[in-house]
């Protein structure tokens, strides 16, 4: 008979594990939470790839290392990583650090469970539904469905798949051969995941019909109507319109009421990609930007962006109450979703999604909401709007700053015109030379580590900066600094 004594563990010493983790948490508090959020520290310490590889010593070897070496590894990883929690990080649609959300992320990682059945994630199954219910209520729905997805891109792809399945349920079994040529409609301002999703789902990017956007980047409903008729005349079957609330570059909000009218007349699924702008629903002052969103069939919303819930926290919300998610994606794996369990098997939500293992993304948002309350989160949103407006007004007072347009959201798009180009707008090469300014300034700020701002060309416009005001720790002093820093970095360009 086998010895019943447990085998000695080769790598699990609870005392040593506690000592390591306490030291690692100490490093995180010192290097990320304190230094990483301090304006007196660098946003990043830039290194070229080959040098960085050597500094990190990335090779994996057959022999393990000491605790001291592991702590040094952690310190090096933090040192050479970009501090997205830094008040001078304006580069992406996410920034800042909420301590309650971070606490939720730490607990989530420590528990290391998968959000697919009530038996292994009872707390999080109930919590996810409560959080989704709250988000749906803010959209304006008293019932519905939803799920947390691994990013807004996947939320958008789910919406396309659900709309297709609702219209052509045979496609789940028979695949593309069960489908006529399909057409979905969006603007060139949409997130690129719409095109990626069309390719990934087998529709092809040609199925994405581009609707005209106006000068501010908003969908033109009259052209949507025209494009639908054109698609039908060409033999395609329209099935979905993807509107955007908070476009990636300009921060535009499509006119949802008018778009919903078109969708209602034509019998089309209306999806609203509010991954960026959805959090504006918390603000009584600004939620009018999303008027009509309650008429959508599906909504994508990323609280990890403007609410600072931490990556990743991406919700797909549905108005549907017919279990469409499970009907579309379910495969009834008998080793997970046994129907004779001792509890209500409706609590096993794993068959709603295409994944099997699914990380818990609700706790960080739930814990942050518990701490801040809806009022605290509303104040966070309103503050971002106010600082974006302050920045835009300050730019108007300074020579060399030119707004691309008045910001409607917290995306502030602008050119910095260095002294050498001022007053030379009539020169034939002005636009070409101006387009080189943002990349040059970006290189300088990153290599100095003073701040990070994104830039891009857009349509016929040459490169301009897109600055995102989202970090809840930002102040007017940070806005003033970035203007001063751009002037300093760009004086000799």
Question: Which secondary structure elements does this structure contain, and how are they paired or packed?
Answer:
Blueprint: H1 14-34, H2 49-56, H3 67-79, E1 89-90, H4 99-111, H5 122-139, E2 145-149, H6 152-167, H7 171-174, E3 182-187, H8 193-200, E4 208-211, H9 221-233, E5 237-244, H10 256-266, E6 269-273, E7 298-301, E8 314-318, H11 324-329, H12 363-396, E9 401-403, E10 411-416, H13 430-434, H14 437-448, E11 452-458, E12 461-468, H15 476-490
Parallel strand pairs: 1-11, 3-4, 3-5, 5-6, 6-7
Antiparallel strand pairs: 2-8, 7-8, 9-10, 10-12, 11-12
Helix pairs in contact: 1-3, 4-12, 6-8, 12-15, 14-15
Family: Belongs to the group II decarboxylase family.
Pfam families: Pyridoxal_deC
Keywords: Decarboxylase, Lyase, Pyridoxal phosphate
Structural notes for this entry:
With 493 residues, the chain is of the alpha/beta class. It folds into 3 domains: 14-43 and 45-81; 114-359, 3-Layer(aba) Sandwich (Aspartate Aminotransferase, domain 2); 371-490, Aspartate Aminotransferase, domain 1, CATH 3.90.1150. It contains 15 helices and 12 strands. The chain has helices spanning 14-34, 49-56, 67-79, 99-111, 122-139, 152-167, 171-174, 193-200, 221-233, 256-266, 324-329, 363-396, 430-434, 437-448, 476-490; strands at 89-90, 145-149, 182-187, 208-211, 237-244, 269-273, 298-301, 314-318, 401-403, 411-416, 452-458, 461-468. The strands form 2 sheets. Strands 2-8-7-6-5-3-4 form a 7-stranded mixed sheet, sandwiched between helices. The chain has a 5-stranded mixed sheet with strand order 1-11-12-10-9. Helix 4 (99-111) runs antiparallel to helix 12 (363-396), helix 6 (152-167) packs across helix 8 and helix 12 packs across helix 15. The N and C termini lie far apart (81 Å). The relative contact order is 0.13. The modification N6-(pyridoxal phosphate)lysine is found at residue 305. Homodimer. One of its GO terms (molecular function) is pyridoxal phosphate binding. This is Cysteine sulfinic acid decarboxylase. One of its GO terms (cellular component) is cytoplasm.
């Amino acid at each position: 008979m086998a010895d019943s004594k447990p085998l000695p563990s080769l790598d699990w010493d609870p005392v040593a594990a506690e000592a390591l983790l306490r030291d690692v948490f100490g490093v995180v508090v010192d290097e990320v939470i304190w230094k990483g959020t301090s304006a007196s520290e660098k946003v990043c310490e830039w290194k070229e790839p080959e040098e960085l590889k050597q500094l990190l010593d990335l090779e994996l070897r057959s022999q393990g290392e000491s605790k001291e070496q592991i702590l040094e590894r952690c310190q090096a990883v933090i040192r050479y990583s970009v501090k997205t929690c830094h008040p001078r990080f304006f580069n992406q649609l996410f920034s800042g650090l909420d301590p309650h959300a971070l606490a939720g992320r730490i607990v989530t990682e420590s528990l290391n469970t998968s959000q697919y059945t009530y038996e292994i994630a009872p707390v999080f199954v109930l919590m996810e539904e409560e959080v989704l219910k709250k988000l749906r209520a803010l959209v304006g729905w008293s019932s519905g469905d939803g799920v947390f997805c691994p990013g807004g891109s996947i939320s958008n792809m789910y919406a396309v798949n659900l709309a297709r399945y609702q219209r052509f349920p045979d496609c789940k079994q028979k695949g593309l051969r069960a489908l006529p040529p399909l057409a979905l409609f969006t603007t060139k301002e949409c997130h690129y995941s719409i095109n990626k999703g069309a390719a990934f789902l087998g529709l092809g990017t040609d199925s994405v019909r581009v609707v005209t956007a106006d000068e501010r980047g908003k969908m033109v409903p009259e052209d949507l109507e025209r494009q639908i008729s054109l698609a039908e005349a060409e033999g395609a079957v329209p099935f979905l319109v993807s509107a955007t609330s908070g476009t990636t570059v300009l921060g535009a909000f499509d006119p949802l009421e008018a778009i919903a009218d078109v969708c209602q007349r034509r019998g089309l699924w209306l999806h609203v990609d509010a991954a960026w702008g959805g959090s504006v629903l918390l603000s009584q002052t600004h939620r009018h930007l999303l008027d009509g969103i309650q008429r959508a069939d599906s909504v994508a919303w990323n609280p990890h962006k403007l609410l600072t819930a931490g990556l990743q926290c991406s919700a797909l919300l549905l108005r549907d109450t017919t279990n469409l998610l499970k009907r579309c994606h379910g495969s009834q794996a008998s080793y997970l979703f046994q129907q004779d369990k001792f509890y209500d098997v409706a609590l096993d939500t794993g068959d709603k999604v295409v994944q099997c293992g699914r990380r818990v993304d609700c706790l960080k948002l739930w814990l942050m909401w518990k701490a801040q309350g809806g009022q605290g989160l509303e104040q966070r949103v309103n503050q971002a709007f106010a600082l974006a407006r302050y920045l835009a007004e300050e730019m108007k007072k300074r020579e060399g700053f030119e707004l691309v347009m008045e910001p409607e959201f917290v995306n502030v798009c602008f050119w910095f015109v260095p002294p050498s180009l001022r007053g030379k707008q009539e020169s034939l090469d002005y636009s070409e030379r101006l387009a080189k300014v943002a990349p040059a300034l970006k290189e300088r700020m990153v290599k100095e580590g003073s701040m990070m701002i994104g830039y891009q060309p857009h349509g016929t416009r040459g490169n301009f900066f897109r600055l995102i005001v989202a970090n809840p720790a930002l102040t007017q002093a940070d806005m003033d600094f970035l203007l001063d820093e751009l002037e300093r970095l760009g004086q000799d360009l």
